[in-house]
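#structure-requests
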Amino acid sequence: MNTMSSTRINQVQAPEEKVMPVTVDKPENTVMEEGVTVGTPFTDDAKFKLRNVEVFYGDSPAIKNISLDIARNEVIAFIGPSGCGKSTFLRCLNRMNDSIDVCRVKGQLLLDGHDIYDAKRDVVELRARVGMVFQKPNPFPKSIYDNVAYGPRIHGLANRKSELDDIVENSLRKAGLWNEVKDRLDAMATGMSGGQQQRLCIARAIAVSPEVVLMDEPCSALDPIATAKVEELIAELSESFTIVIVTHSMQQAARVSHRTAYFHLGHLVEVNETSKVFTTPEHQLTESYISGRFG
């Protein structure tokens, strides 16, 4: 999972994240220059092109002049200390920050060349193309079947019950859940285990055939066995989807991602192939974080 071809490197409710100060004993050469990211932030095959992105909560900057490409069918992990802005940046990608009155987003955010913050953009359609899985499993208080069928129904993706059945089954299969639930599709989703609920939320997200799946700490509430299943699922889904994952676990980032992006105090410090970030980081702040000097 840690190696990408050269053509790919050169693609409900969430807790609000606010940038908080982090005390760091930094050498002089670790001071960030705004808008400068080391490594390989750009690609020849971008699904997302993000340029000079800034996010403010009121007058307080949370994201500071970030430029980044996210390649098609890559898994990119966002890492960094709590409050560094990684979840805030993630939620810009499908405009989940719109629900926060004091939040303002500046810059250019292009999905397949089109501005996702254009005034004429249909946000519902955008979120069908860019799905999201949150930190805590949040199934609807409905049956397993209805959780997965909800999106296809409201988007008119099935004209007949048989078509909807196929979408539900295919989504549950992709999420690695079908064999576990096929005989109890009418059971309440809230009665499933935490790991099953999270995979159900993934099935629900992919049921509308998104192009990108955003994952905000998807395994933080799961046990090691459930976490392993979700990580295996991420590897399989990357064949069909672009995946952006926020994680506090550097081990998880190393296991599942092609590239890793390190955030610090609202800056994007470094982006590179995951193996390089964890073995030969180019920036002192990245090295300090992965070596445990702060975080």
